[in-house]
Hints:
By secondary structure, the chain is an alpha+beta fold. Helix content is 45%, strand content 29%.
Amino acid sequence: xxxxxxxxxxxxxxxxxxxxxxxxxxxxxxxxxxxxxxxxxxxxxxxxxxxxxxxxxxxxxxxxxxxxxxxxxxxxxxxxxxxxxxxxxxxxxxxxxxxxxxxxxxxxxxxxxxxxxxxxxxxxxxxxxxxxxxxxxxxxxxxxxxxxxxxxxxxxxxxxxxxxxxxxxxxxxxxxxxxxxxxxxxxxxxxxxxxxxxxxxxxxxxxxxxxxxxxxxxxxxxxxxxxxxxxxxxxxxxxxxxxxxxxxxxxxxxxxxxxxxxxxxxxxxxxxxxxxxxxxxxxxxxxxxxxxxxxxxxxxxxxxxxxxxxxxxxxxxxxxxxxxxxxxxxxxxxxxxxxxxxxxxxxxxxxx
Length: 352
């Protein structure tokens, strides 16, 4: 997560921290609040807000900032209330209010459920605000989730303010997914192949040998659902091992994953309606659901990368994993055809 904002405010009307450029450095809020004028002060200027997307956009909206944009007009009013300063920033129809005070040598700003502490240093017409910690509803947020840094520079005819907030954890995750997209797909394929093996065991042992579904008239609808789901799996197994779904095709892939979930839920309801499942089969279905969830989670980072690529299939290969997914695609396709034929055959026979 990286967000940036900058503002230009008239120095003559600048609020307390802007006029606190006294001394080369100092312990936090002592610098920020030294020689501040009394009463209420106001300033006008503009902001460039870079909370454009992702986690940064969510936090920006939670803090009350307007949508991302350049030259966003802002009016700032600072009012003293005892040892506290109440800051009101007006972005047109949007207002962001916060309370600033000194605590333990730090400048502490509270806005809504958030509390951010800054260590402030100043010198040569420049101030640096470096966040030391952040709290949400009184609970301290780990530093690796977000690091904030601001600076205030006095130019000839204006005051420039810049702010950046970066999350090392999110930044590391992005670097991992960008540099290791193939690795994340490989992990997803391993989980997907494991799911295919569990599905083969479920089909052969429980559907064919134990309950003999293809020869059970009441299972006709269940067999039809199995055939439809096997068709989805045949597409997934046959494509993910050899192709990346680029651009808008990602949404088609997401739709297939969602269709699989919908069919599986309908299959659960149909099973409970028509037959009593063996304990082993029910446990197998639960295990398969867990593995499917792991597969989707592992695949998601790669989908985010594929979405930014040109629309189309990009040929790739994952070695032996690609051949295993091909074998599973052929196997699940054959199973789907068998279930479809059995369902149609049972449809011609009267129910026992």
